[in-house]
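During the no-cost extension, the postdoctoral fellow (Dr. R.K.) reprocessed legacy sequence entries with the updated structure-token encoder. One reprocessed record is reproduced below for audit purposes.
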Amino acid sequence: LAGGLALATNEKRWLESCPVMRWQTIYEGRWIFLALFAAEALLFFWFPWALVLTTVLVLFSVWFFRDPEREIPADPSVIVSPADGLVTDVEEGATIPGTGETGWRVSIFLSVFSVHVNRAPVAGEILSTDYQRGLFLDARDPDAHRKNESLTWVFLAQEHGYKVVVRQITGAIARRIVAWSKVGDRVEKGFRFGMIRFGSRTDLFLPPHVEICVKPGDKVAGGSTEMAKWKF
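Re-encoded structure tokens follow.
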């Protein structure tokens, strides 16, 4: 037991020093890793030829839960991407959840190959969260942001006092939204506040007083890509 605890401690220290892995993120996949390792143990005795497949799945799962460090733009006028992925939609005049006002909605599709950690688009305070039960449509479905299960975060930007909203949306495969922060927390721009497991979608809602810096088809990186800039 002591040896096992020492090994786990050493692995945790290695992950914390690794530039692309973090213990907090890897921990979210603990049951997946446990199931895969159990399958490998059984296959070793009964179907050793199948170990190739399970080994590939283990390696993919470890890679999926990667969480690289990012260079956060220091410019206070910059609003960064809350997720990695592909911009699929930029809508002007969208209703901003949690505020009832109209502004911009930028949708980001996360494939199974994307980093699935979500980051704060601005520095400020988490004012509220709203969990909604729903369907598990494909994250690229036009109705996914209205009908799918989701968790909405309202941030009060410290730069100008405006509300910026991030909505984590499940998909056909991603059915697990993870929250690492809570209402009342003060966060820095680019701070990791949660993640979604496997393919999913993240929507960013912004007030009208911004200049959008991306367009559909652009690839973005959470915490580093400039999504928009305040106009003042």
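The longest helix spans residues 30-46. Helices lie at 2-17, 23-27, 30-46, 51-64, 144-147. The remaining legacy entries will be reprocessed before the final report is submitted.
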